[in-house]
Amino acid sequence: MAAVLKKRALAEYNKSYQDGPSSKKLHLAKKPLIGSSAAAFVGLLEKCKSSDEALQLLLRISDCLQFQESDVEEAIKKLSEHFQSEEESAVRVKILWLFCDIGLECPGANLNHLVDETIHLIKNETSHKVIAQGLGTLLKLGCKLSDDKTLMQRLVAVAKENLKDTSHQVKCRCLQLISELYPISPEPDRTPDMITEANVIVKLLSDYSNAEDARVRSEAFQALLTLHGRGLTLSADIYEQVCPALSDDYEIVREVALKLIWLLGNKYPENTVTLQDGETTMRLVDDAFIRICSAVNDLCMQVRALACTLLGTTRAVSDRFLLQTLDKQLMSNMKKKKTAHERGAELVRSGAWASGRRWADDAPGQLLEQSTVQLLPGGAAGAFVHGLEDEFMEVRTAAVEAVCELSMQNPIFATTSLDFLVDMFNDEIEDVRLRAIDSLNKISHHIVLREDQLETILSALEDYSMDVREGLHRMLGSCTVASKTCLEMCVDKILENLKRYPQDKRSTFRCVQKMGSNHATLVLPLTTRLLGVHPFFDMPEPDVEDPSYMCVLILVLNAAQHCTTMLPLFEEHTVKHYTYLRDTMPHLVPLLPIGENQFSRKQKSESEMDDSAVRRFFENVLQHIDNVTLSSNVRLKMLQSAEEQLNKLSEMEPLVTGAANFTAMFARCVLALHTALNNPAGPPAHALQNLSTDCLRLQHQFSGVTEQENACVWQLALRVSAARLIAAVESAAMTTGAGAGAVALSTAAALTHHAELLDRLLVSAGMEPDPFTIAVFQQLSCGEPKPGSLARALHPLLLAAPLPQIPTPNLKIRMCTATIIEPASDNDTVLRFCAGLITGVSFEAEVLRVREPGALRVRVAYPDRRVHALLPPRDHLRPLDHQNTNDDGTENVRLLTKVLISHGVWTEPCGVDISVCLAVEEGGGREAQLVELCRPVRVTVAPKPIKRGI
């Protein structure tokens, strides 16, 4: 660290140059680790008396694998010599394994030499396991040398030679090596010779798809897929060769063949294939789709799930085959196909027996081949019906996702598949129900829900799972219903369900908000019933705090935004309630021309869109603060006034809350630092702690901050770190003990670490540091100073330094905030539990614009000043359904967890404060600090003693 700062400080700030000969460079050699160097173990191989000892020694080499660069070549030589004299195949396998590890992990290893040595060792090898391991070593080393095409051709030639081996393992490794290392040039650079050679390779791999061993057949198909993934175009001619593999006895072959069929179908959709009758032709993509549909009835669960997944990603399929997947009835030329039994039954019912007029008109039919008779429906008939009714969750989930993908591309298929997706709402597995709900949400723009479908959908609202209920709320908000009766059913069921699950209030509000906006014309005839408006009598005024009435208001007000005809139907108390909701929940209630907003709607919307006035206000507030000609006292008073005005601006204008809070907090830190440094008794500890917390908030709680503004914040934080060092040294001088000295040392280390990070940040931002930062760099460049001397040198510099520069306001700055929904702040319930045990408090919060959700913590503060920071599980952080991500890369998350509280016996109930914080790392070996994102909520707790006896 000192060397880095010394170079920067002396070169850039002192501007001094030294003439004369350059100093002698020192070569620092890293000492070898005694007793753990792998080179020592390699030297012991000659003394091994048995293969077991050699294997144990090789395992120890593999565990440490620490070679000096000069020892690598000698170690490889000794390993190779032992390989040639070793009789046990397991030891030879381990030596080749070590070759691969040395080449990939040890610096200074010659990969080409390792490749040559491996090829030489396996050339005359007889053990299949050793040859397979040698090919695996060549494959991994070759991936590191893929730019050397000559070497790649040599490795491919080695693999071709070993393809004649009788072992399936060797053949599989050879096929894998050929597919991954065969050099493939970009398509414009390919010559006819290259194309011919590539076709020979494809032909070679295709031939091995007919091997006796299923593992070799599977690897051959996988090699073709690998070649295609690397850029080699496969010909459509191999389609006919792959199709028989779909009926292979082994599922590993059928699985890879399915992927290859899907690939060729999507690659050449308009090619034609001839069916078994020799006359009928069909598009290649349609034939591939039908063959994949047949795999939905496969005996293996993995194959069925893969078939459903591939069906969803198949494009350009004809509608008649696509729609056939949702109907189990066999069709031929769009006519229902009858079985022989059905045709015979019709013949019996009609009484049309043999008349005897024609010769052998009652003779038996022609003999059929056994392979042409299918007991199960083949082709595309009912493929998705079978997939959605499968006994395994994986297949049903894949089928639901496939139906969703196809429905998003085809509106006709979306309408046809709607009933099947709705039926999946009754699935026994929660994950399948959630997938069905999300699928219906994605295709909502293609469908219109009928009454019979809504009955099934609304019955799922009673599900015990909150995820299912909230998913249904999102789906109902995005879908379109067919009639007024359907909308009435939805509203009644939602209000009834809200009484059963009051914790779904916020999700229900967003649901009815979208329903009102999407069905304005259907809400109009229901307005009088929903609001309780009577033509003759004055009805009682509803309670605006009632969640059911709030749902109705949100529904009607959002519908009134698009249908102004219902505005005259509002009574006086409805207008007052609108004003209340508009102030408390502006994100749920739109701006309507009623009440006070009747004539100012246009002017207000224009003022919201124009931010020039806000920019001028910022400039007026901060125009004289950075004026160096003014005295420090005048600038401090102006800073204090600017802080007050910016705090008021953040409350009045939500769009600039982040920028106003950022600048106001910066001004507050400057004022507090100046006050603490000019304190006659020295900087107070609590003031420095608050300053450190505010600096951490400036660094981590705001997003959209430019590098220049961030550099200003870090320079301010450097002054705070220097003030903390001065206070720590003064405290250590006044007290005796090792604890005070340790605090001073840790504070000095934190200052050094902060200066190092600031130096990098200034270089990245292209900024020149302020005078105090330059002085700190110069002090730290003089070796590693002690905390006392460093504090004595920085104290006068810190007092004489001018006020920090206030960064120019950036209106794109946004602030990370949290809102605690549960427990409520006005909750008076006392939680009683046995002392020493644990009680759980339901906790729900919404965190907006957080950069790292993993840094969120739940802070629990007890009355005896004990503080616990609880890390919520990752699955307790859920994305907000109304807005998940923001334009600045931050996330909006919903924290839904249980806070565990435990304590000893209390004489009376006391409050425990719970809040949401960010855990930020300061560096320098210090533990993470907590930055609060909201005001804590107090929960009253009363631990009672455990009763003894009966």
UniProtKB/TrEMBL annotation:
<dbReference type="Pfam" id="PF24493">
    <property type="entry name" value="INTS4_8HBD"/>
</dbReference>
<dbReference type="InterPro" id="IPR016024">
    <property type="entry name" value="ARM-type_fold"/>
</dbReference>
<dbReference type="InterPro" id="IPR011989">
    <property type="entry name" value="ARM-like"/>
</dbReference>
<protein>
    <recommendedName>
        <fullName>Integrator complex subunit 4</fullName>
    </recommendedName>
</protein>
<dbReference type="InterPro" id="IPR057412">
    <property type="entry name" value="INTS4_C"/>
</dbReference>
<feature type="domain" description="INTS4 8 helical bundle">
    <location>
        <begin position="615"/>
        <end position="810"/>
    </location>
</feature>
<dbReference type="GO" id="GO:0016180">
    <property type="term" value="P:snRNA processing"/>
</dbReference>
<keyword id="KW-0539">Nucleus</keyword>
<dbReference type="GO" id="GO:0032039">
    <property type="term" value="C:integrator complex"/>
</dbReference>
<dbReference type="InterPro" id="IPR056235">
    <property type="entry name" value="INTS4_8HBD"/>
</dbReference>
<dbReference type="Pfam" id="PF25458">
    <property type="entry name" value="INTS4_C"/>
</dbReference>
<feature type="domain" description="Integrator complex subunit 4/Protein SIEL C-terminal Ig-like">
    <location>
        <begin position="819"/>
        <end position="945"/>
    </location>
</feature>
